[in-house]
Amino acid sequence: MAPKVVAADTSGVRPGKLKVFLGAAPGVGKTYRMLDEGRRRARRGTDVVVAYAECHARPHTEEKLEGLEILPRTHRTYRGGTFSEMDLDGVLARHPEVALVDEMAHTNVPGGRNGKRWQDIEELLAAGIDVVTTVNIQHLESLNDVVQKITGVPQRETVPDEIVRRAHQIELVDMPAEALRRRMAHGNIYQPEKVDAALAHYFRVGNLTALRELALLWVAGRVDETLQKYRSEHGIGTVWETRERVVVALTGGPEGETLIRRAERIADRSSGGDLLAVHVARSDGLADASPAALAKQRELVESVGGSYHSVVGDHVPTALLDFARAENATQLVLGTSRRSWLSRLVAPRGIGEDTVELSGDIDVHMVTHERAGRGRRMPVPGRELPHSRRVAGPVAGLVLPLALTVVLAQTRGTLNLTSEALLFLVTVIGVACLGGVVSALLASLTASLLLNYYFIPPSDQFTITEPNNALALAVFVLVAVTVAALVDRSLRLARRAASATAEAETLSSMAGNILRGDQAVPILVERTREAFGMESAELVPRSGQEKETVERGEGLVKVPAGPDRILVLRGRRLPSSEHRVLTAFAAHLAAALDHARLTEAAAEVEPVKAADRMRTALLAAVSHDLRTPLAGGRAAISSLRSTDVDFSAAERDELLATADESLAKLNRLVDNLLDMSRLQAGALTLHLQPTAFADVLPLALDTLSTPSVPVESQGLAEICDVLADPPLLERVIANLVVNAVRHSPADHRVLISGSALGSRVELRVIDRGPGLRPEDRDRIFVPFQRLGDNDNTSGLGLGLALSRGLAEAMGGTLTPEDTPGGGLTMVLSLRAAAAEEEPVGLA
């Protein structure tokens, strides 16, 4: 039954305040910090007592007790032993201002009125006594199962989270994993005899790093709760952006890399800031972005830890801001326009200006770059004139000639008819550039009428008396219409050229994805969806009844992609101008599918090639390694059989020993080869049964010749049995010991230790040799691999490869670790045959 949470009784007494020093693991310095806090308060004149402190015989921590009043403990007898506990009644009777109470999660020895120490602390707080205490993250009740999954150790001493959350102050005592392991190795946490087991067990780098992250996240959540409470109490309704999310808008232009790096720096300056890149694909499909450039920028975004997104929208500013708000972004990074000053005269407002106007509470950064203002934005490939220009063109065709007429009327008599006609011609050409040939025709008609009425004699009437003036007006109209048509044609050709360029870049990018090969098909399908602005795109099996043509429907497009696949796109209705490009996309997808099939076929052949390489290496190695023991044994036996030499008894013993050693080497070599072949063929027979490391180790050492360095063991008799095949386990241990002895200096021992870790048991073979570089940790398990050996006298290089294979066959693992202080530790982990023993000594 879970212990009852006791609420503090505040009737008539001010409840005490609780301060908690929270640690990620034992040994980070919680007790030290608690005692230091007590000394600091005592120096200020506060009445402080040490109600309970567990220093674990750590000298630096015990020094902090000096000058503090230490209350006597109470002693209780339980199951034949005597244990000391905090004297709760004594602390209440002393009634200090502050009580220092260590190990909040401790379970009290039966005999007191509370089963848990945190319940004692609740009584002290209810009595008006401030309490400073300590607890580790693994003791919080809500994290109990998470910690067990990480460390394999169940925590039977827990504290309800609400007790810790009610604390007036929570201070995190933090220490990096490597620093904590160094403290452990130096003997600053546990006694020397417990150090190796602790480093191999609970104090692994991965365990400590995960626990540290849990502690940081838990405290961060507690800080957020405090902030929300403060905002609620003070009626603060505005958003406080405590975590930055930066969105960078990419167009596929050359400025993209500059924007990404600038946005990354903005995100990095904010603790925990996120970077999101977004490209807005216009709903008409192929836009003015280079897919190749976007792919390169996407790689850059992901390389700096950001994420890439693509959205579809007609109005780019609105699409950008909708995405930013959906992602709860706080900042938006845009590049300044690449449009030239002439383009700005035609259309003053750009995407940046509209985005700033609509941004609201999102900060917008306009970043300058080397391409700013250096080129007019090219027309969108395959698109007609925008709606704004289609409206502005006819309006300009009417307004601009009228405006020019007003100006020329003020200077009547200054210019002749030829100059006035040329000015009207320039106006018509400008209207043609803005609105196309239809707007130019309207402008030429308006200009000719105004020119006739105001500037061709007789003025102020639509009559022409001079034949030359009539000819001039006719030529004016002809030239205006011709020039407008040519301008419109050139713009159409420019748009077609831009469209062809975009299509070529897109298809080139897709071809590059096919050549790269890795996951090309999913990438190309996603590129197709983004390029055409569709909601979804997928490859589906082909039933054989589909036609070899593009099928179009309302929001659904199907196009063949090879003999057995159909590309299906859902979303908008595609115009006919994009069907040719879509067919090219589908052809690339078909090529990608063929490439994937060829890659899969090549992968199926690779194991055969690997087996051939294995056999070649085996033959090359066996050619020497078999010959050496055979030659030695044969020479010794031949000498013994010889009748020409009369050997002494000592000489005969030496020859027999040589023959025995040679045959033993040959036997081990053949056994390794046979076991390796069985492993690779999947024909290894296992007989798993409860096996004790302490029973197998002597047998493994007996199979070895006299080692050049001493081999010692510790802790093997205390650990439980493992599920293993005894002969195979013997082979694994023998190979590990041989490897450790070979690389150990003569003045150092090889240590073999055992420890339990949850439902598994570990055997550690520790040497003080040169150790391993990180890049060699996998290579040592490759057959026929001898790191640092240039000769074949040490065997085929099968020992570690065979050991890992046998360990995995028995359901275990074999991993290398660095030995603290230098050297290599091989860790053999196997399943425990009996119930695990709960580790002790965790403070």
UniProtKB/TrEMBL annotation:
Keywords: ATP-binding, Kinase, Membrane, Nucleotide-binding, Phosphoprotein, Transferase, Transmembrane, Transmembrane helix, Two-component regulatory system. PROSITE patterns: HIS_KIN. The keyword Transmembrane applies. It is a multi-pass membrane protein. It is found in: Cell membrane; Membrane. It catalyses: ATP + protein L-histidine = ADP + protein N-phospho-L-histidine. Residues 621-834 form the Histidine kinase domain. Its main location: membrane. The chain crosses the membrane at residues 391-409, 421-450, 470-487. CDD domains: HATPase, HisKA. The keyword Glycosyltransferase does not apply. It is an enzyme of class 2 (transferase). Coiled coil: none annotated. Its EC number is 2.7.13.3. PANTHER family: SENSOR PROTEIN KDPD. This is histidine kinase.
